[in-house]
Specification:
Chain B is an alpha/beta fold. Helices cover 35% and strands 24% of the residues of chain B. In chain C, helix 1 runs antiparallel to helix 3 and helix 3 runs antiparallel to helix 8.
Amino acid sequence: MIVLSALGSRRAGRVIERNYRFYRRQWLMFASGLLEPVFYLGTVSLGISQLVGDVEGPGGEPLSYVAFVTPALLAVSAMNGAIFDATFAFFFKLNFQKTYDAMLATPVDPADIALGEIAWAQLRSGIYGLGFMVVMVAVGAVLSPWALLAWPASILIGFAFGAVGIALTSFMRTWQDLEYVSLALQPMFLCSTTFFPLSTFPRPLQLLVECTPLYHGVALIRGLTTGVVGLETLGHAGYLLVLGVGGLAVASVRLQRLMVR
Amino acid sequence: MTTLEAGREPLIHARALTKRFGDFTAVDRVDFDVAPGEAFGFLGPNGAGKSSTMRMVGAQSPVTGGELRILGMDPGVDGARIRARLGVVPQEDNLDVEMTVRDNLLVYGRYFDLPRDVIRRRSEELLDFAHLADRADERVDPLSGGMKRRLTIARALINEPEILLLDEPTTGLDPQARHALWDRLYRLKQQGVTLVLTTHYMDEAEQLCDRLVVMDGGRIVAEGSPRALIAAHATREVVEIRPEGVAIVEGWHAATASSVDGLAERIEELPDRLLVYTDHGDKVATALGAQGTDLDRVLVRRSTLEDVFLRLTGRTLID
Amino acid sequence: MTAPARRAFGYWAVRYQAVWRAGLVAGVVGPTIFLAVMGLGLGTLVDDQASSTSSLAGVSYLDFIAPGLLAATTLMTATGDATWPVMTAMKWAKTYQAQLASPLGVDAVLGGHLLFMAARLAATSAIFLAVMALFGAVNTPLALLAVPAAVLTGMAFAPAIAAFSALQDRDLGLILWYRFGATPLFLFSGAFFPLSQLPIGLEVLAWVLPLAHGVALCRGLSLGTLALVPALVHVVYLALWGVAGVAAARASFTRRLVR
């Protein structure tokens, strides 16, 4: 809250509180979002890991397939935590339920809404991240004490996706536009080096993959859990931070324009 | 121009208030004052600029030109502080439909930074006021339109506002719900809440408002109490005459008008009937009957604000 | 196809003209990307392993998952068609009620919509089979039978899902089906790895549910490795699920529409 006040927002916490109250009644929907990566993990550990042997880890060392995929799925679950509320739910509240019109008739202003919704995305990512970390320990994929930083890393991922999600969605006008979000998420997920390393791609495609945010989230967390930490770790974190700050700036300006007419 | 009691500060003060969207001028240099404790109305057809005016008064829409002071403050500077003391009932409900009735009140109260126990206490009173106490823990989505409207009004009162802004409060409601709502608003007024509302229903304006302004095309075309407006711009009674058959034949208006010539103060021609403005409707009706007009086609009624609007703009309130 | 059902079918077909592009993306482009990325990407890792080539009976990973994807995608397409469109038609757009105001009866209304779902499954499966051929995953003309096999697989689910959706008042049930039903089924169908690798309890569960049969059927046909008796078993099993699903759908549609 202190950070939010420092950024000039006094009521972002109220926006978060509204989301909390909403999900308190819909906790099943909230909790079930954590399960999709767990199912993928099940597929991997029970099914595919026997087909694949060891895989090259971030430091070049051989990793069991489970130890390779699990940290990546942690990044995916952090993304999942943020993305729905930052896109579909945000669009619905903005254009259909007119929830923000209601808020703006009170002392709440657009900056509060931008900051509050992005902070909520991070909160949800953090909760999903924590939950998945328990799974990760249970599966034996934690190979280094650096893995403790995987939790703040998941919040950072939530920040990046939350901010970019809100920024992009604020420009959309119809449900069809949102379809593009779903459309983009699946290939990004498959190509994020969750299931196979970057070296599998031909070089031109590698460059493309390195531009996507999920790749950086995956690489960041995998480096932390395997203890391969160095400049590139800062690079991945920096990429996500820049994306988040950029999204926040765009969202703040855009929401101000959109909501105060 | 205003008829406020001398010495009372207006709660809302507008001079040459203007709102432009690009090239389009929605509100064109309007002047009005709202006194504490009164029920003030903006009457006019859709597109007259009422909602735009309300949004400016609610400190939600920036003023393009002119002067506007609400509760003595400038909305451009103290928007949040003003909004903290207002209650807003929008034209379309914007409730959180997946949440319960009670949660809607709680969440909204929190936007005002009210402590939770204060909100809980006020919620109980408001739920009684809105006759929603037995639905308090149900989801909003399945409730009827009238219930949702009552909840929206209850919600707007959670911060005990000094001014309640209502934009078309009873549009879309059935007659029973409308009257119930008017009753509650009247009670609020008795408790000292200042009401500002927009409407295109003249019966609503007549029932609820102490004073009103008539808006058309972004401008104010008349103002005063409902009774004063009718006295100034219409006669006491109106006789409506409809033609035989389905459509009006050429010359029917002129012929019928001349048959009551001398008895009428004014005559208006509408596509489907003739309006004869007079202070003595029964005399006109008798005259028509004596000429053989079928009295089933003749209606004598009191003047309303609709007639005022027609006189001032040449158009009806409902296009 | 009875004449009344054909009329109801016509409604859905006309509507589809406006949105066919979106359906194509989900039904064809999505699985194509999946096939390319996982078949080639993950496939590189799998095919490098000597042990896995024996698990997959000497087939490349891409050739292994392609027919699996063909079958498993029909589950997702059927889910997409039988969840929100059915609930929307029942509850908000009141499409079914409008159709019932005509001489059509509940059977025709239901039949028309199910026929449309089957038609869409046939179209997207046929296109995906062509994609598979482009990737070199199709070795025998027997593979053409994989298209009706895929439709049969999807229709083993579609009526049951529609039966469920017709009874829903809120999104929650549909979202839960997607997350707890369709997604794990998709992953544990034998499309991505042989089911024999699962612990015995899970393997039995997978075979009780129809998708594993659809996957086995499509794979056997496209690789040319299927014997007649197992094929018939799979076909009959899928058909039984489909018939039961239609019975359930008739019951729930009647309950909601005939008051």
